[in-house]
Amino acid sequence: MNKKVMAVAVAGVFAIPAVAVAQKSTVEIYGRANLGFDHYQAKGSSVAGQDRDGRFRVFDNSSRVGFRGTEDLGNGLKAIFQIETGVNVDNGSNTGQAGAANASTGFWASRDSFVGLDSGYGRLTFGRQSIYWLNGVNAQFLANYVNTEIPWTNGTNLGRISSGVSIARVSNVVQYTSPTFGGVNATLSYSPNAQEAVQNVGAGTDTDGAIWGATLRGVWGAFYVQGDFAQNNANKSLATGIQQKATLYKLGGSWGYMPGARVGLIWVRTDTNNQGVHVPGLAAGDDVYQDGWTINWEQTFGNVQVMAQYGWTGDMKDCNSATATVPCSDSASTGFMVGGRYFLSKRTWLYATYNQVTNQANQFADYTTASITSTSALTAAGPNPFGADPKIWALGVFHAF
Description:
Blueprint: H1 2-23, E1 25-43, E2 52-60, E3 64-74, E4 77-86, E5 113-119, E6 122-130, H2 141-145, E7 169-177, E8 184-191, E9 199-200, E10 203-204, E11 210-220, E12 223-233, E13 245-258, E14 261-273, E15 287-301, E16 304-313, E17 333-343, E18 348-359, E19 389-400
Antiparallel strand pairs: 1-2, 1-3, 1-19, 3-4, 4-5, 5-6, 6-7, 7-8, 8-11, 9-10, 11-12, 12-13, 13-14, 14-15, 15-16, 16-17, 17-18, 18-19
């Protein structure tokens, strides 16, 4: 009996430090559900038979469940983690409204997920993380507020030129965020991108692809400014020696002129090199770029917030007209969004929005974030609905927990 009592006592002594450490750790379960009823159409295509007739839908945009936590390691050092998973509450699968796969849903850690360390010297994390596309408070009309926004606001979708070159939520990322000095901080990101590719002598691709990203943010009173840069180098073809590249730039600023009210402007540019096999109507080796702008406004009146966007893109530039099967002229777009939210509480609101994009004859910018479009993805092989004008009106409910 004495041996058993002694064993229990010793076990209890050694268990005390573990309990004490566990008490310094916090784990939070959080998430959101963002669903509603909408109507999508894309008519007016300059290509015969490529109109998308109107259809009613029950939609889900970026619902998710996550776990995150911290552990105090002492001397200002903390361990941090987050595991966030996209959940399609409307259909229980990992597909969006067109039936196409949505890489940010359906699997554990499909959204931003990481583990790392945080201290007075900054934050270092490893995992699946966002590069380039987030806008901070400059524009939150996407899944943070409602169902969708002007397609090129976040800089990853300018229509034809976005296919195959998007940089948004990326796997295999190491990321460092600096401390804030004088209202300014920065985030640096690196990913080996398609690191799992197999190198085959004389065929296939090398494993030299990589994505680099940098974000600089500044807050001075009611003013917020953010600049983003990203460079995406695909794995080089061992057969041709060609490496596809995309370089993305973004600069935005906004003024919060009163509580719940903000106005701002965002400029984006995507420059692609050797991306012709991904950009509809271009040939391999073409180097083109395109600019886009978006004006954002929001204003709160009691329990009601109204919001609006207006934006436009220019034509694709530096296009080789001798090799392009679809010209780069008449490739501009304009778009707008109007909407409103009615707050039932701080975590729950109802919303209504109307979105429309008007495309010129050789362009098709569409609402692709969270696979909310009902059209097929643009492809180099086609046929593509160039000239069609997507429109979405939506009624939705948003609940955060």
